[in-house]
Amino acid sequence: MTRLVTSREAILALAILILLAVIATRFPGFVAPANLARVLTDTAPLILLALGQMVVIVTKCIDLSVAANLALCGMVAALMNGAGLPLPLILLAVIGLGAALGAVNGLLVWRLGIPSIVVTLGTMTIYRGTIFLLTGGAWINAHQMSDAFKAFPRAVVAGLPVMAWIALAAVAAMALLLTRTPLGRAFYAVGGNPHAAVYTGISVGRTQFLAFVLAGALAGLTGYLWVARYAVAYVDIAGGFELDVVAACVIGGIAIAGGSGSVAGAVMGALFLGIIKNALPVVGISPFWQMAISGSAILVAIAFNAASRRDPGRIILKRAEHRT
Amino acid sequence: MSILRKALTTAAMATALVAGSAQAEDMRIALVVKALGIGFFEAANKGAQEAAAELGGVEIIYTGPTDTTAEGQIEVINSLIAQRVDAIAVSANDTDALVPTLKKAMDRGITVISWDSGVAAEGRQMHLNPSSSALIGNTIIKLAADHLPEGGEVAVLSATTTSTNQNTWIEEMNKVAGNYPDVKVVGTVYGDDLADKSYREAQGLMQTYPDLKAIIAPTSVGIVAAAQAVTDAGKIGQVNVTGLGLPSEMAGHVKSGASKSFAIWNPIDLGYSATMIAYHLAKGDAKAEPGATIPIGRMGEVTLDDNTEAAMADPFTYDASNIDEFSSIF
Predict the structure, then answer these.
(1) pTM for this one?
(2) What residue stretches are annotated with the Periplasmic binding protein domain (chain B) (predicted)?
């Protein structure tokens, strides 16, 4: 199983390299280190959300409310900044708020047993609506944000902006959590075989709840980063972004049926999409083709996944199922 | 249809004339807005008051519902009909829903015009647009050209590939591009009115065209995102961001220098012009029919087209000299 996972990631890594090579033939400046750093920074929000979404998908759930959660937390961050609160407090508050919003999803899934796609479809609208209630639809613009608020994600430390470092730190922390802690293993157990997980003493609902909280906290943090980076907050920011996040996970080989997927896969899936998004404006492809190209890339990646999904790991699990 | 409308209009005009001469007191013009408490309309009211003061003998009734619903506006208009005002100038929440009520008003001899957001032709005598596609198209390229005495490359950052407004404006812009021979429009990209995509497209433009001198973004999301991208790329002073935006959203970027100037209609002028037109129509010294010309005081005059619609003026240009005044308004 491990070998198959690595091979799927190897295919993805190869695809990314080929993609970069093709782009470089059209626009050589794209693969300059400074530009790649820029692409990484630009993809940081997608990476952060894909990490959270990955954990949720691994537990057999899906969170469609991440973008709305991001937008709400971003707006709250901008409002707190307007009220003159210090940045560390804002950061803590948005992570806490994001986690709380995730917890709402988690509780509904856990306690009421509603399918996660329905729960998060509902909360997605509620969270967006809440932004409207908070602001009456007004925008918060660049000149209404303090300089420190806008500067933090942009500050360059050791060659990379803080925003990129935050994404990298989250990747490392998530990799540790998933591979080295009981909770991390529980996520896989719950998604891979819920019945077996119960027999080993893992609460399926509680584990799913924690996955939602984790995804929510990451979305909250990303909310601040997003608003500070684009220096604008309004109801519709990151509209439709949840689909990008799910697409990044799917491209990264996270099984929608739960139980399998890796941090490396999610990160590469996000990078793959991020590179396409950043390359399309500079390679001179007609905008009318851009969406078709993005869509085709997703389909091709999924076709790869589907081909490698017929893996022995699944069959072993099925046999285990029959034996119980 | 057209004869009926003409007959109706003439009847309304005649009644208005009679009503006008019967009452020697102030002419009462009602400015009905989409909702009270919106900065844009408060500013339009300011313009209407200015027009009233200039004309003399005119009382402005500034009114509207508390939320932007057609039902609320119908109630407001019904009460204005009961008060027998001389003219109603409305920015409608719904193109069709207000028509029956406004027809009733016209039957009672009240002059009815729409402005900003129009009602269907049978529900008003004329409609005042803040500007026209041709004027907007010319303005956006002129804004870029004004700050490029030596010319240079400019690019357009639009909304989506299917946005009717933006596509029309860009088409009109390309028609008059020949008048600005030194300004070379090198490309059009689409930010889909998403902050992140617009930001990336603006970054892409600066990479693809290293000599780019200006980005024209005729969309309020795009212009803000482009200004931020230029700021982050450290290209303030090198790449000028212009187009259509709202003063409250652009204030920071005008102050930082990322945008030297941009345009949007001026609500004060719009309220002023709507009042002027309502006054002349109600007084009977102008007629609302295709091809007619109506004077609008300091704004000059407007000419009605075949749909009895008129365009007020070029969009108003905002820059460092007036941004503070308007950023608090809308």
Answers:
(1) 0.77
(2) 29-285
Query: Number of CB pairs < 8 Å for A and B?
Result: 69
Is the domain spanning B133-264 CATH 3.40.50.2300? The answer is: yes
What chain A holds in terms of domains, given with CATH numbers, is 2-323 (1.10.3470)
Q: Which candidate from A42, A237, A287 shows the least CB-CB separation from B190?
A: A287
CA dihedral B104, B280, B134, B144 (to 10 degrees): -120
Tokens of A48: 């952060």
Matching residue, tokens 């009318």: A288
* Residue pointed to by tokens 């009233």: B52
CA distance A161 to chain B (A): 12
Cβ neighbours of residue B156 closer than 8 Å, sequence gap 6 or more: B170, B173, B185, B187, B188, B189, B215, B216, B217, B218
Taking an 8 Å cut-off on Cβ atoms, the answer to whether A27 and B199 are in contact is: no
Spatial separation of the C-alpha atoms in residues B266 and A303, rounded to whole Å: 54
Strand B309-311 relative to strand B126-129: parallel, antiparallel, unpaired?
A: parallel
Phi, psi of B34 (to 5 degrees): -60, -40
Measured between beta carbons, the chain B residues lying within 8 angstroms of A232 are 195, 224-225, 228, 249
- Identify the three-state secondary structure at position A112: coil
Which runs of consecutive H residues, i.e. helices, occur in B159-313? 164-176, 195-208, 220-232, 247-256, 267-283
ipTM: 0.74
Which residues sit opposite B185 in a β-bridge? B154
Instruction: Out of B188, B225, B327, name the one closest to residue A230 (CB).
Output: B225
Which of B194, B200, B253 has the CB atom closest to A281's CB atom?
B200
**Would you call B252 and A237 a contact, using CB atoms and an 8 Å cutoff?**
no
Q: Do domains B2-130+267-313 and B133-264 have the same CATH topology?
A: yes
Are B304 and B288 in contact, with CB atoms under 8 Å apart? yes
Provide the residue ranges of all domains of chain B, joining segments of one domain with +: 2-130+267-313, 133-264
Cα A246 versus chain centre, distance: 7
Please give chain B's pLDDT, 330 residues, in tens.
456 566 655 555 555 444 444 444 689 999 999 888 777 888 899 999 999 999 988 999 999 988 778 899 999 999 999 999 999 999 988 888 899 999 999 999 999 999 988 888 899 999 998 888 888 999 999 999 988 888 889 999 998 887 778 888 899 999 898 888 888 899 899 888 888 889 999 999 998 899 999 999 998 889 999 999 999 888 898 999 999 988 888 988 999 999 999 998 888 999 999 999 999 999 888 888 888 888 888 888 888 888 888 888 888 889 888 888 888 877
